């Protein structure tokens, strides 16, 4: 299997895992505070990342690029938090459509940051994608809502995640990338831990903990 084909397959698996997370988030945020959902996502994800470290050894999280890990980890935190708030307050389809403009932004940022070349076809795809985002968000019209900026903010952070991941992938392990992100999210969720915490029943507890599994898989494959 070629590297390009393997990359496409892993990216597809990663996006599928994160899409399952979207559905779970939508269900949970209807009945629980957003930061509670974030906490359970972070808690279960941290357990999985510790297992990965145990399996791979402590050497798997040693890094010579702590600043880049910091940028990626907290960009991912910003992406996830804004995305979940978007899921709570917007239609799931609208939130996904706008937030998934991240590759468009990443393609633009890849030119000055990574030195990548952008061909004619990519430029056209970027323009069409940007027009699509404008159609959905409807800036300057009576249909525009401030909460529509949530998935846009999430997309900006996600673009930063894509770029920083590209800068790490040649020297850093997938385990280290998942590890630092998981604990950055856990740390943030504890700071904003909700005072109106709702004790979940068994079904919702399973759903909550599965967020970490699917989310970690998504970031590991990507």
UniProtKB/TrEMBL annotation:
Keyword Isomerase (UniProt): no
One GO CC annotation: membrane
Lineage: unclassified sequences, metagenomes, ecological metagenomes
Residues spanning the signal sequence: none
Pfam families according to UniProt: EamA
Annotated localization: Membrane
Keywords annotated in UniProt: Membrane, Transmembrane, Transmembrane helix
EamA domain boundaries: 6-137
Record InterPro entries: EamA_dom, EmrE-like
Membrane topology: Multi-pass membrane protein
Keyword Membrane: yes
Transmembrane intervals: 37-58, 70-91, 97-115, 122-140, 146-165, 177-197
Protein name per Swiss-Prot or TrEMBL: EamA domain-containing protein
């Amino acid at each position: 299997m070629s590297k390009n084909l393997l990359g496409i397959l892993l990216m597809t698996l990663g996006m599928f895992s994160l899409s399952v997370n979207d559905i779970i988030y939508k269900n949970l945020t209807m009945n629980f505070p957003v930061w509670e959902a974030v906490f359970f996502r972070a808690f279960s994800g941290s357990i999985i990342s510790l297992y990965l470290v145990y399996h791979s050894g402590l050497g798997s999280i040693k890094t010579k690029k702590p600043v880049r890990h910091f940028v990626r980890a907290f960009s991912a935190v910003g992406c996830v938090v804004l995305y979940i708030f978007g899921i709570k307050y917007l239609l799931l389809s609208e939130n996904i459509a706008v937030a998934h403009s991240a590759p468009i932004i990443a393609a633009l940022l890849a030119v000055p940051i990574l030195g990548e070349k952008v061909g004619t076809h990519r430029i056209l795809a970027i323009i069409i994608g940007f027009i699509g985002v404008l159609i959905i968000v409807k800036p300057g019209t009576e249909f525009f809502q401030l909460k529509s900026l949530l998935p846009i903010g999430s997309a900006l952070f996600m673009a930063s995640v894509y770029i920083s991941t590209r800068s790490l992938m040649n020297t850093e392990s997938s385990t280290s990338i998942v590890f630092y992100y998981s604990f950055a999210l856990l740390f943030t969720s504890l700071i904003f831990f909700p005072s109106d915490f709702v004790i979940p029943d068994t079904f919702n507890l399973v759903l909550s903990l599965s967020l970490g599994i699917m989310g970690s898989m998504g970031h590991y494959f990507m």
